[in-house]
Amino acid sequence: MSSELLINVTPSESRVALIENGVLQEVQLERQGNLGIVGNIYLGKVSRVLPGMQAAFVDIGLEKAAFLHASDIVSKATIEEEVAEPVKKVKDIRTLVSQGQFIIVQVVKDPLGTKGARLTTDITIPSRYLVFMPDATHIGVSQRIETETERERLKQVVLPFHDQEGGFIVRTAAEGASEKELAHDAKFLKKLWHKISKKRNKTRKAAILHEDLTLAFRTLRDYVGEDMERIRVDSKLTYQQLKAFTEEFVPELSSALEYYPGERPIFDLFSVENEIQKALKRKVELKSGGYLIFDQTEAMTTVDVNTGAFVGHRNLEETIFNTNIEATQAIARQLRLRNLGGIIIIDFIDMISAEHKRRVLHSLEVGLAPDRAKTNINGFSALGLVEMTRKRTRESLEHILCGECPVCHGRGALKTTETVCYEILREIVRVNRAYDATKFVVYASPAVSEALINDEYHNLAELELFIGKQVNIQTESLYNQEQFDVVMM
Fold first, then answer.
1. Per residue in 2-20, is it b (16+ CB within 10 Å) or e — as a string?
2. What pLDDT sits at residue 224?
């Protein structure tokens, strides 16, 4: 599978697109006015301890207090207890932190909607080959490194750098790495941790201690070990900075990095801009004629699969099965592209055959296999729905690019002109009973005004007769369909 990264950089925004086999699979955005904070390390002050939630709110200097659950509070003492006792028990939050206490925390989830950032005290600092864990007492090796001799070799190389200050996790990219390269990473990480600790000792208030790399640099770091055919950057300055970064930290990606000077915008390659626009729509068309409907809510995301114009060739069961199989690949791609996380409910078209259900689940698993975010599929429920989860660490594409509709306020529907007309008639009666007026003027949108003058003419005439007062209709072109004013004269 050929993979390519497109990096678009402007003074206000950075965007990264992952292309696999010529098709857009992932998009990441970072705006200067709203930089992501996942990976940042802060000195936080505990502002509230909530025993009922087994959590605490921590002030890290942001607008919203961050959230720290008892299960995310880790220390060397608790790690040693876990080694002795395999069953992990979460201690009472009141024994772990107290109000006004200063603690070092790391952000694991950006603020999402009305929720503050999610924190942990289990600090991890990644580099090219290693991840340093200040509170750990062991050395771990990525499960993706399967050769036992290589796993043991890596452990022995890193062992001399393991001490009371912390432990390491050996990343997948370290497979085949030399002792010199691993030693360089280990020394770099420990030096960085010393710098963070020194800054913490000098700080007397909630503040940032370490800021993670910006999007372009973070992307290259995270894609270490991936087979990248090309990495194209449309900013000369960013390209030069990335070139220096890759030569020092990620030399295997250095040859793939290239500057894109083309007149055609880089995101017009592979129709990235068009695909982003499509990813903001509810409806996703399938090549067969079927379609998907995505609905993103506060609690979960639902996906509905429909046959649409696809009528198949053999029988209904085969038509349904083929549509569902096609839908699994489209769903897997859309979850990555839209960055949908949390609980996801998929309503496949009902299937009778147990074998068909098994194959549809397998196809979904295969489609989700390249996804870097952790997913968990629970299979078909008693109602025939597939329940799954996908780890969420940042806002979805829709939440980043879109805001709430000022007219429907997120409902996704407007009151009909008929409904608004009847609201106006009731409002006139209410105002007439409460106040002494000689006549009324109604200001409404063009559609509602036209309905009152034409379709609801008889109802309006009966109302005038009932209250014994004249009602004039005035069109306001700037009013939305639900907006109106009843003015007394």
1. ebbbbbbbeeeebbbbbbe
2. 63
Structure tokens at 79: 């790690």
Contacts of 279 (CB under 8 A, 6+ apart): 27, 334, 337, 338, 397, 398
Do 379 and 389 meet the contact criterion of CB atoms below 8 Å apart?
no
Helix, strand, coil shares of the chain, percent, nearest 5, are 35, 25, 35
Q: Which amino acid is at 29?
A: L
What is the phi/psi pair of residue 347, to 5°? -100, 85
Helix axes 354-368, 316-338, angle to 10 degrees: 20
User: What does the radius of gyration of the chain's CA atoms come to, in whole angstroms?
Assistant: 29
Among 53, 46, 67, 71, smallest CA distance to 116 is for: 67
Question: By CB neighbour count within 10 A (0-12 exposed, 13-18 middle, 19+ buried), where does 104 fall?
Answer: middle
Query: 185: pLDDT confidence band, cut at 50, 70 and 90?
Result: confident
For 261-288, write each residue's pLDDT tens digit: 988 999 998 999 999 999 999 999 999 8
For tokens 């299960």, name the residue: 71
**pLDDT digit string (tens) for 301-314?**
999 999 877 666 67
Which residue, 132, 120, 137, is CA-closest to 71? 120
